């Protein structure tokens, strides 16, 4: 059975707290797993969340600040220790190649798994599979940072009433789907386009074109909201978003489910992030991320 869910491993910005681990997130997409921004402590959070090294097919790092990447060394070594039976691909900003190499070979270990390095140097597609296209967009942060977007190919939704009206049933339905036409009846006559699901992961950034491009039409948008709106100037200075800014992006982009994360330790009341997001006019489903939470990708 296919599973599409987002597993939250950590939600703190800059430093872990008693209640929030460093960043770490896993997207389960049918039979694949994409690990985003493994910060310090990700291995332990994986254990607590029931995520195994075998679940990881890709690693996507937005940028090389420690709270988004210090867990790479342990995760990569765990993938090799557990002898994951499939190749793993790592995406990260090309300008941070030296950081990736240092983390990959931080200590001695035996390499048993094929880890393909696929650095990101520009906006555009990174990989295309039958299940999705993975894209990257440049963000605005003091160090080079990229956000990631996953887009499922559009499909077709069969319309039972139209099939019945044309007398098509049983094996003929499959034949029409494969061949596109059956006895003069086309696929367009008995079906409609089912838009593929869209997911985006947007971490440390100011408002910029890349944020909007990543968020556009997403079924699930995971986005940083390090600061509250009263600290908007501080957010801009440090290359971050506020709760209201992130929610306004989601509102304007037509996002169905918004997940806010990456919270500064200066704030003690997570509910204030929700109040400010709603105050910005976002009316879709909203999650204020907590460590070890699981968020399903909305169905279409």
Layout of helices and strands:
Blueprint: E1 4-10, E2 24-29, E3 32-36, H1 42-49, E4 58-60, H2 66-69, H3 72-81, E5 88-91, H4 97-104, E6 115-117, E7 124-128, E8 133-138, E9 146-151, E10 155-158, H5 160-165, H6 171-179, E11 181-182, E12 185-186, H7 187-190, E13 191-194, E14 198-202, H8 209-215, E15 220-224, H9 232-238, H10 243-253, E16 257-261, H11 271-279, E17 285-288, E18 294-296
Parallel strand pairs: 3-4, 4-5, 5-6, 14-15, 15-16, 16-17
Antiparallel strand pairs: 1-2, 1-18, 2-3, 7-8, 8-9, 9-14, 10-13, 11-12
Helix pairs in contact: 3-4, 10-11
Alpha-carbon distance between the two ends: 16 Å
Q: Largest beta sheet, briefly?
A: 7 strands, mixed
Tally of separate helices: 11
How much of the residues is beta strand, in percent? 25-35%
Stretches with pLDDT under 50, minimum 5 residues: none
Q: Outline, from the CA principal axes?
A: globular
**Element order, helices and strands?**
EEEHEHHEHEEEEEHHEEHEEHEHHEHEE
Count of DSSP strands: 18
Rounded radius of gyration (Å): 21 Å
Strand order, sheet with most strands = 6-5-4-3-2-1-18
> Which whole number gives the mean pLDDT?
96
| Helical content band | 25-40%
Structural class: alpha/beta
Notes on the protein architecture:
The chain is α/β, with parallel strands linked by helices and 300 residues long. The mean pLDDT is 96. Helix content is 28%, strand content 26%. The protein has a seven-stranded mixed sheet with strand order 6-5-4-3-2-1-18. Strands 7-8-9-14-15-16-17 form a seven-stranded mixed sheet. The longest helix is centred in the last third of the chain and has 11 residues, at 243-253. The two termini are 16 Å apart. Helix 3 packs across helix 4 (97-104) and helix 10 crosses helix 11. It contains eleven helices and 18 strands. Strand 14 (198-202), helix 8 (209-215) and strand 15 form a beta-alpha-beta unit.
């Amino acid at each position: 059975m296919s599973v599409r869910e987002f597993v939250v491993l950590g939600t703190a910005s800059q430093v872990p707290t008693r209640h929030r681990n460093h960043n770490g997130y896993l997207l389960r997409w049918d039979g694949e797993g994409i690990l985003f921004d493994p910060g310090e402590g990700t291995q332990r959070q994986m254990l607590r969340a029931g995520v195994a090294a075998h679940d990881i097919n890709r690693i996507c790092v937005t940028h090389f600040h420690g709270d988004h990447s210090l867990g790479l060394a342990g995760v990569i070594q765990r993938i090799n220790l557990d002898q994951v039976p499939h190749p793993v691909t790592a995406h990260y900003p090309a300008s941070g190649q030296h950081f990736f190499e240092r983390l990959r070979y931080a200590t001695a270990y035996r390499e048993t798994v094929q880890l393909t390095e696929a650095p990101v140097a520009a906006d555009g597609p990174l990989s295309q599979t039958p299940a999705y296209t993975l894209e990257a967009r440049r963000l605005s942060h003091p160090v080079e940072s990229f956000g990631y977007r996953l887009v499922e190919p559009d499909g077709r939704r069969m319309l039972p009433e139209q099939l019945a009206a044309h007398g098509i049933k049983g094996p003929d339905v499959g034949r029409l789907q494969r061949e596109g036409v059956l006895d003069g009846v086309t696929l367009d006559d008995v079906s409609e386009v089912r838009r593929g699901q869209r997911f985006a992961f947007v971490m440390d950034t100011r408002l910029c074109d890349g944020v909007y491009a990543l968020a556009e039409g997403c079924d699930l948008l995971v986005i940083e909201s390090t600061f509250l709106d009263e600290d908007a100037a501080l957010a801009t200075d440090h290359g971050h978003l506020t709760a209201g800014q992130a929610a306004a992006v989601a509102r304007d982009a037509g996002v169905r489910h918004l997940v806010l994360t990456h919270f500064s330790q200066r704030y003690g009341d997570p509910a204030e992030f929700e109040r400010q997001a709603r105050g910005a006019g976002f009316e879709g489903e909203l999650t204020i991320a907590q460590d070890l939470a699981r968020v399903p990708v909305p169905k279409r």
